[in-house]
Amino acid sequence: MSTVPPSTPHVFDATVANFEAEVLKASLTTPVLVDLWAEWCEPCKTLGPILEKLATEYNGAFRLAKVDVETEQQLAAMFGVRSIPTVVLVKDGQVLDGFAGAMPEGQIREFLSRHLQPLEGGPSDEPPEAAPETAQDAINRLQQAIAAEPDRAELKLDLALALMRDGRVAPAQAELDALPVNLATDARAVRLRSQLELARALEGAPSMAELRARIEANDTDWEARDLLGVRLLLEGEAAAGLDQFLDILKRQRDWNDSQAKKRLLAAFLTIEDPALVSAYRRKMSSLVF
What we know:
It is a single chain. The chain is an alpha/beta fold. It folds into three domains: about 10-115, Glutaredoxin, CATH 3.40.30; about 135-200; about 210-289, Serine Threonine Protein Phosphatase 5, Tetratricopeptide repeat. It has 14 helices and five strands. It has helices at about 15-25, 40-55, 75-80, 105-115, 135-150, 155-165, 170-175, 180-185, 185-200, 210-215, 220-235, 240-250, 255-270, 275-289, and strands at about 10-15, 30-35, 65-70, 85-90, 95-100. The chain has a five-stranded mixed β-sheet, sandwiched between helices. A hairpin with a 2-residue loop joins strand 4 and strand 5 (about 95-100).
């Protein structure tokens, strides 16, 4: 039985019968967040109300499709669901992103903010945003969850991602290497692998200030420019980091066995902004071809 209140306009039950029209085709104009749940699932009972609240708060920026995996097993199989709750964002008829497990509200807001913005006219009396979950909070939460459910491999991927957020490269690598084959090719695992590759390049590297000083003293210090690009990228200044790699590619294309091109390709796998990646792919192509 659905838990969706009939008065909630942005939330609906998705079934095999309406999935193509209400999810796939509808996502061409409005993104659809698919919540795969079940009545017996305790974490689902925590996550569901949060998602429904956010659907109302976003005021039509996305619709929330509730899929009861017990009655809609065909849809669950289509999404390759291995555990619930599982949440998938569908946009332009394609799966754009997703997560598994009952994440805290702050982390869900962070997930949504990467792809969506609330439309104007939503409720004005919403409580303040919950503070985003810190990396250490996520590590503690996931370690506890793994201890309670050691067979849920997707939690170990979440832990590896949280460890990387906290700058703990070696433990993140160890968790990534221990993932089963089916998760090793997950988009988030691929992204993490590229982040770890870039992070290893900074082992023993000079600080940001030292690298900037080296470049100021010698504009063609390609090593300093390369390492500065990596530091900027991993510290959240993606465009500035990519600009450093493009500068090397433009002025010294073959430096260190075309390392700038390799850095750009690795960076594209780590950046979660499709528009930024697309723009810089075009810039790279104009220099390479």
